[in-house]
Amino acid sequence: MPTGDDDNHGDPPPEEEEDDAGYGDVAVGGGLFSVPGYEWADVAALGRDVAGRAVRVRGAAHAVRAVGRRVAFLVLRQGSSTVQCVVGGGGGGGGGGDAGVARFAAGLSRESVVDVAGVVSLPREPARGTTQQEVEIQVKKLYCISKATPNLPISVDDAARSEEDVAKAKAAGEQLVHVGQDKRLDFRVIDLRTPANQAIFRVQCEIENVSLASTRPKLIGGSSEGGAAVFKLDYNGQPACLAQSPQLHKQMAICGGFERVFEVGPVFRAEDSNTHRHLCEFVGLDMEMAIKDHYFEVCDVVDRLFVAMFDHLNKNCAKELEAMNRQYPFKPLSLHYQHFKFVQTNRLFISYLPKTLHIEYDEGIRMLKEAGVHVEAMGDLNTEAKKKLGELVQAKYDTDFYMLCRYPSAVRPFYTMPCSDDPRYSNSFDVFVRGEEIISGAQRVHVPEVLSRQAEARGIDVGSIAAYVDAFRYGAPPHGGFGVGLERVVMLFCGLGNIRKASLFPRDPRRLNP
Question: I want to staple 62 with a disulfide (CB 3.0 to 4.6 A). Which of 77, 188, 244, 258 is the partner?
Fold first, then answer.
């Protein structure tokens, strides 16, 4: 891998802060932090047109090679794209010096998730072996976000090798590692990172966008949410259950190198909940994504997605909404413009804001207590409290669609990331409309030791989710996501009052036919 050209274009990179060595391991606590002066960039977008730009990229350490004591070459992989990063050589390391940062880079285990901040430059020769051959990054800062275990069960290069290449090598008297199908599936998280698998499942995703098909498994070996509310069955002599959610496998897909994962598919809950808003089987709309600076990035996706969805329904489904309203009268959920003033008691509709309102859990608790509602300290909100809070939010902020953030850790699932400033709280949120929960989401724990500890604390058999926990031992980026029931969205948007109206063939604790 050749060194880069020192003749960069554009503005010089920002000066290093005196107390920042410019490289090292990031302490456990979410892996989210800012690097002033460097803009996030996608590896696939790096080309000659961005030469001279100060960028920050996050990806996997695909390959590392040291050249002497002061220079190392790091190939960074993001999805199916790769770029060469030049570490040291007069270009990086901050106060630690070239030798220090080069030594740190050379010691990175393959597949570790790293952050590179540096300047895009044009190499003297094409950076062979990378997809972005016309450019390289002169590294100024290098941080390890998540260490992969040094001895990987399979390597991405070996898994990417074709059977034809193995056969040709054997005929020539050479020995190349061949990864068999069973071993690939045993370590699928790593296998998914090969260019071929990235391409296969991106093509499949395009098909899913048209057919709304589901890819995450619905038959699993253990509970995906914790607790006993699962439908148990025999799977060829093995105990199994129907998946409560695609949660665990969404996260494993993120670990497999996919920046964002979307799921539309059936979800099964064995809860004995005979309410107006629960079903034993429903269609789940789920999303998981790698996050960079803050878990509010997930909230922003929820905001844009659902505001756009509501706008679309109001614009394109007016006749259908009118037909429903004739049989099941309801107040439409409409976009609210700040300059309009309404008489609260005579409103013929309820509203949502162009930018969804965020409220912290503690503020919501204060609002309820001030209204005389008894709520348990650091506890979850019951149905009545949620309904009342919706009324209070509507009266104070003039919106019926809002997010409640930073829930106590004790009331969230075991895989929820605790807040770095106070672990009693979590990087989580719920979204409400008409005083009822419609969406739940959070940043997930990507540190296997923390994940195991929190699962044990919830009474979950860690052995039953070993494959899930182990997925984070091979390098995992900070990530988060959310889930929502399709039927509940329809029920609450249309004010139907009962989720069974929104299900074609509802399945509740008492109904199995037709």
Answer: 77
Q: How many domains does the chain have?
A: 3
Strand partners, 238: 235
In whole angstroms, give the CA distance from residue 311 to residue 485: 19
Do 130 and 189 have their domain in common?
A: no
Structure tokens belonging to residue 155 = 């390597």
- pLDDT tens, 397-408? 989 999 999 999
185 and 218, same domain (yes or no) = no
Q: For residue 166, is it within any domain?
A: yes
Locate 209 and state its tokens. Answer: 């966008």
Residue at 507 is within a domain = no
Q: Are residues 319 and 244 in the same domain?
A: yes
Domain holding 76, by residue range, is: 23-146
Q: Are residues 122 and 224 in the same domain?
A: no
Tokens of 506: 């509802």
Residue 210 shares a structural domain with residue 306: yes
Per-residue buried b or exposed e for 272-293, using 16+ beta carbons within 10 Å of the residue's own CB: eeeeebbbbbbbbbbbbbbbbe
Listed residue (375, 359, 349, 499) closest to 431, CA to CA: 359
| Predicted pLDDT of residue 217 | 58
124 and 180 both lie in a single domain: no
Q: Count the alpha carbons within 13 Å of 281 in the hemisphere toward its beta carbon.
A: 13
What's the pLDDT tens digit per position in 453-496? Answer: 999 998 888 988 888 899 899 999 999 999 988 889 888 988 88
What number of other Cβ atoms are within 10 A of residue 111's Cβ?
26
SS3 content of the chain, % helix, strand, coil (to 5): 30, 25, 40
**pLDDT given for residue 504 in this prediction:** 82
Parallel, antiparallel or unpaired: strands 232-235 and 54-67? unpaired
Asked whether residue 151 is assigned to any structural domain, the reply reads no
Q: Please, which residues have CB within 8 angstroms of residue 177's CB and are 6 or more apart in sequence?
A: 155, 158, 161
Q: Which are the catalytic amino acids?
A: 269, 271, 277-278, 437, 440, 488
Same domain, 180 and 256: no
Q: Do 348 and 388 share a domain, yes or no?
A: yes
What sign does the dihedral 173-179-182-186 (CA atoms) show?
A: positive
Tell me, what CATH number does 89's domain have?
2.40.50.140
Which segments of the chain have a pLDDT < 70? 1-20, 28-31, 90-97, 203, 205-228, 336-349
How many CA atoms, within 13 angstroms, populate the side-chain half-sphere of residue 362?
4
With CA atoms as reference, report the closest residue to 254 among 298, 317, 310, 284. Answer: 298
What CATH number is associated with residue 395? Answer: 3.30.930.10
Is the Cα torsion angle 438, 503, 483, 199 positive or negative in sign? negative
Contact 247, 271 (CB under 8 A): no
In the chain, % of residues over pLDDT 90: 50
Strand partners, 394: none
Assess if residue 172 is contained within a domain. Answer: yes
